[in-house]
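Example record

The entry below shows one chain as it appears in the dataset: sequence first, then structure tokens.
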Amino acid sequence: MKGKALTVLALVAALALAGGWPLIGAALADDKLPSKSDQSCLKCHEYDKSSNLFAGKLVDVSSKANALQLQIDKEMEVIYFDDSTVLKNAPSLKKIPKQESIRIIYLKKNGKNFAKEIEVKKGIAVPKEKLADADEVAKLVALGPEKGKYVLLDSRPGEAYEQGHIPTAISMPFFAFDKLQETVLPKDKEMLQIYYCIGFS
């Protein structure tokens, strides 16, 4: 294993995404509108605590109607857009693959849901030298944090951690990274840090 910060293979270093999908607290419109998020999004994000936000899978885009369809669990939402809509992480709406995860900050315009910002979920490119497979992590866990000289960080939401986690892991939800880093991260910056989540998200 090389490097001081490793990611468990098949589990994501969700903290590597810090800044990729920031929590949205303040709405971009004056009115705070309800948020709707696919359950798969809520496994790692606290979008249900936000306002003016849709998160789900892209179904289709109509350039003629200036609208897109978003699947949120079993429901469909139609959201409109225009030239003022900010698009992040994609060259154009038509270039976004169907069923791609997207997050939309919206407001009401003429009684319709209008996209102020559309952000495509960013992929993760973790260098191979920063990855660890399950066997490597199991060996470290068997040694324990002191002998193995590591800290294992579970970056899933706290509820998921409470339901079960890898032995020796410390709960550090990635959306609370800034708040927890001073108290959870080791003072020794040379100590091996291993992050895991539930998947590439």
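Notes for this example: Residues 134-143 form the longest helix (10 residues). Helices lie at 39-42, 134-143, 145-148, 158-163, 177-184.
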